């Protein structure tokens, strides 16, 4: 995977200062990727396009709330997109995550098992913790949806996700 030299943090900080060109540059750089993710999550082109538009409106309005000490700019803008997508998936009458094909697709983290990063910590989790955790955070499924897919009580799903998050926190360098 190619590493981008685009400075998301600088673009967001410029947006916070009212620099519309910074937002345009950020949009040109990230909108195609965000649209692909939104389309994967929602399964409908029009809904995905609307989601990306809404995400960029929120990025512009809330850029002054971005704190580089809390994480990367790219992660911040994708979290906005993800939370908006999950809200639409959970909204009555919207597309249901349980009916979308991607909901069972999880990343292959086998290569990451030896790494020290987040992916390595997730890869080293027991399958009973890794699968519900990835379904929740990678695919955006609710505990109820995971419970139905894995045929286990929702309380157990919740406990597995929480245990997995606890182990990941323990394994992260300080």
Molecular structure report:
- With 174 residues, this protein is mainly alpha-helical.
- The chain has two domains: 8-95, RNA polymerase sigma factor, region 2, helix turn helix motif (Rna Polymerase Sigma Factor, Chain: A); 98-171, Winged helix-like DNA-binding domain superfamily/Winged helix DNA-binding domain (Arc Repressor Mutant, subunit A, Orthogonal Bundle), CATH 1.10.10.
- 64% of the residues lie in helices and 0% in strands.
- The protein has eight helices and no strands.
- It has helices spanning 8-16, 20-42, 45-62, 73-90, 118-123, 127-137, 143-150, 154-171.
- The mean pLDDT is 82.
Topology:
Blueprint: H1 8-16, H2 20-42, H3 45-62, H4 73-90, H5 118-123, H6 127-137, H7 143-150, H8 154-171
Helix-strand makeup class: mainly alpha
Question: What's the CATH superfamily of the largest domain, by name?
Answer: RNA polymerase sigma factor, region 2, helix turn helix motif
Total domain count: 2
CATH architectural grouping of the largest domain: Orthogonal Bundle
Rg value: 17 Å
The total of beta strands comes to: 0
Helix percent reads 55-70%
Report the uncertain regions.
none
CATH class of the largest domain: Mainly Alpha
Strand content: under 5%
CATH topology title of the largest domain: Rna Polymerase Sigma Factor, Chain: A
* Number of separate helices: 8
